[in-house]
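Teaching assistant here, posting this on the class forum so everyone can see the example we discussed in section. The complex has two components, and the goal was to see what a joint structure prediction looks like when all of them are supplied at once.
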Amino acid sequence: MNETLFRRIKDLPSTHLLGTGVPTCAGCGGLQALHQIYDVLGEKTVFVNAAGCMTLLSVYPFTPFRGSWLYTAMAAAPAGAQGIRDALDIQLKKGQITTDDDLQAIVLTGDGAAYGMGMSATSSAIERGLDFVYICYDNEGYGNTGQQYSEATPHAARTSTSKGPQGYPGYKKDLFSIWAAHKPSYVATVIGAEPLDLARKIEKAKEKQGPRLILALSPCPTGWDYDPKESADVGHLAVRTGIWPLKEYEDGKVVHTKVPRKRLPVEEYLKRQGRFSHLFEPMRNEEILTGIQERVDAYWAEIEG
Amino acid sequence: MTRKLLTGNGAAAWGARLAVVDYIPAFPITPQTEIIENLENWIDNEQMPARMVTLESEHSMITAAGAAAATGVRVFSATSSQGLLYAMEMLYTVAGWRAPFVLVNVSRGLSAPITLEPDHNDIMAARDSGFLQIHCADCQEVLDSVLIAYRLGEDERVRLPVIVNLDGFYLSFTREPVEIPDPQAVAHFLPPYDPENIRFRASTPISQAVAVLGGTPYSYFRYESHLAAQKALEVYDEITAEFAEEFGRPREALESYRTEDAEYLFFQIGSFATKAREAVDRLRESGWAIGLLRPRLFRPLPEKHIRQALAGKKGVAVIDQNLAAGRGGVLYSELASVLFGHANMPGILTSFIGGLGGRDISTEEYFEMAMVTRQAVTDGEAPSPRLLYTETELREVQKLQAIANMERIELGAKP
């Protein structure tokens, strides 16, 4: 697809569809991405939600969504989307509703559901070719319960369940590749700090059919421990240091949509966040810092050939 | 109307077919599989217009069922045992959505130890989920109950999902002659589903199942579900009166068998109640004034009907095919709470646990239960709950243990 409505920043919508006054934390990178995503997807949507931070967007009797919403449970949102999609298809076929009344089923979950508990439901929804969009706001931990580590937590990060000097011993699971291995219609990584790249990807996802999955890195001032006003900076640095590659999968190929020309050292990103402060103070943990940098370098060496 | 030899599973599938369901989220589990195999076969051969999707788990299956019901189509699903428990989070959840559909549960014992054979611990675990429950004693009742369940759940005064329960093996795989009603007659009794405002539409956005903050709105919505479930009793009576008129089969909330002049009663649910009926006949032949009460409707429990039927009776033998570990029989506790504090109720309830994991309950055991109950009435004191088990059975298990021990020793383990 070459045609895009979003060629430069000023092509992006200047007003947001999603209402204000929601109870997310100040500087929430997930909400930033969701605003931009909703502007493109629009209100002919039903958001099928799993337990997470965003569950609190719709608290009776209020909702910021102009379209519809169904809260399911932590592991089951893709199955909820399946039931709604199938029911709408049945009603369309029987002439009980017109295409004007049709809706796009949008799954909205955090990384806790996407990387762990909900993965089986997601895998089988993709396998069945379900016509839906999956949005994961990935803040790299069980944020809503106080940022315990999840399968999306990066190596060495301090979380409320990895407070030791080494931080989290595991490595962030490669969900993009896991999703892409199912050969769905579309997979993309995005971040709210790169709105043009995000808008083009959501636009592309919107026009496709079948399973389309969006993984949005969501800088989280509360969980990552930085000043809320720095969310956009932290997001930029995630891309410019190469630790969060912006890419998409379609037609069997992975394409990187924004390759940083000169990658900044990854510690530029790490040192802005309290969750990595133990790598710098009281003394630099050279071994871990080098290890993280080497993994980022190795990733890009493979991409750049 | 045609008559066919059908298994309980076959009858359940026919119920779904006659109800002209739109959507069937499925997942196979023994002993339920024949239900979904039949339905898929009919769909493939264009004998049934429904859409069927196999999910990757019962948790997802119930989510899809609830979500489709919340979008406004008629939904059917079926499961058993571990599947029902795997879906448990979603049973509670979708019941709160107040979107009606019918789930058939083919009862089977729970792990551990893992077994394929039937008892009621699975369905009792769903007791407080918000699903209504209808329990069947024969294959005809399975078909009839599926049709009644749709009328009940979809009624605007109720709007709750309904479980129709049948016993694995004893009903699921037993062939009985079943009357399959004419589709026109079914359509007259059960018209197409009108979901009214239960739907998702682009032109009328709606938020369903949203979070609440605080106990005040939470309690309100939970109480509403509870009151709707209670209301379902009078609705059930109305619907079954219509059903009896249309098809000639009364399907009362509480089956009373030879209770009129009875002094003693068996109290039991499900297919084993037919064994209790047989025992009642035999006991009456030898002069006993005894009968059987069998709730078809377990949620809501027809409390007033039960009290009416038990007024002036001497003693009740409650037979539970479930075991609440550390407590005893669920049905026994339920009945005790229905009777306590009301005048003229039987003074003695005896409690028996039996029929776990496919174990039979013999006619002789029914005789014994009757005698224990009569003795308790004479003594004025109920004995401790009894776990039905024979010396022969104990010897069988001891033999198995001896074999297991020999094997261990032969493999070099210390005795």
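For the discussion questions: Chain A has one domain: 9-304. Chain A touches chain B through 46 residues (CB under 8 Å). Think about how each of these relates to the inputs above.
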